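Sample intake — CpaE family protein
Collected from: Halodurantibacterium flavum
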Amino acid sequence: MGRPIETIHLPRADITAYWATPETGAFLDRARVDRRFASTTIEVHPGGIEAAIRSCAAARSPDLLILEAPQADEGFLADLERLAEHCLPHTRVIVLGAANEVGVFRAFVAHGVSDYLALPVTVPDLALACGRALPTDGAGRQGRIVACLGVRGGAGASSVTQTLAGLIAEDLTLETLLADLDTAGGSLGLALGVEGQQNATVEAMKNAERLDQALFDRLAARPHPRLAVLSGHPDLEIGTATLASLMPAFAATCRRYFPMTLLDLPRGWDGLTRSAVGLADAVLLVATPDLTSLRNARLLLAQLAALRPDDEPPHIVLNQIGLPQQEQIAPARFAEALGKPLSARLGFNPRSLPGETCKIADRRLREALLPLATSLCGAQMRSQPAPRQGLGRLVARLLPVG
């Protein structure tokens, strides 16, 4: 596997990008709708730096400019100085160019550019560069969200999700939110013995815009000091389309208050599931070693690859290995047929009991899932580097004093 993709969620900011080649334009259009840029207002225009100069001369410059430089030469550096005359001091600039040389990077930084990225570049790398350039206002340390779903009914996805949440809260000592998004028939509350008369998940999603720590504490159960659980009595009135529309605000609130959030999703590929996995930092699929799971897992992997082209691949847990009187596929053959490595292999345990999420007595289960729990947490606790100065430094050099 490649390097872990760092979690970055940008602060509210106005970003305008100007491309010079169609390939870069298509890339910027893809980045514009990526979840990492969800809190920003981003516009993409053709015309390169000349278009940027005309726009900034006619209207207020944005918080961040992204410019493509087909030729990293003296002419482009001169154009940067022309651009600086029309930019506010706080405006930052990121340049995308073909040259991959340290000298080019240094020349741009000397002219007030916040960052230079050599093409081709990935959406996560662009998001990280934007995070370094923009003031974070705390957004750089926001939490991770993991979307968990079973590839078939009875795969044990809810049990695996509950166990992972307990490990993250207890062993990794991270404040964790576990939310049951199967609002019509989820069993998470029953399994943990914390089901109430109202559906806390629905209430939290409906009130996501005004959720604060006090309201979270009122709605969520606490089976462990570092684990908050949103579940409750099934709500048959609210549809998945409504929940899907509430998902972005709910996800943003979860990131703000919890280093880790695990979403226990209903089986199926509806609007709610698509919205949740599209917003998540990582996706966990739970399968059983049989032909139905193999077929469904292949279909889900194809859907996820199309929905999340710039994200880390899903983590796959193979559950209920060794279930008696069942014809099963060997784990190695299952992984080979799927074309993906398994993140964890869990044997069938007939003695597992509901409510063991935070009191995991099975040492083998702990040993099997703790590496996965650690991997899911990723680098979300790292601090972001201090933002670099923008074009204001160049403006001060160009404008006459007093």
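Post-analysis note: The chain has two domains: 14-139+384-398, 143-377.
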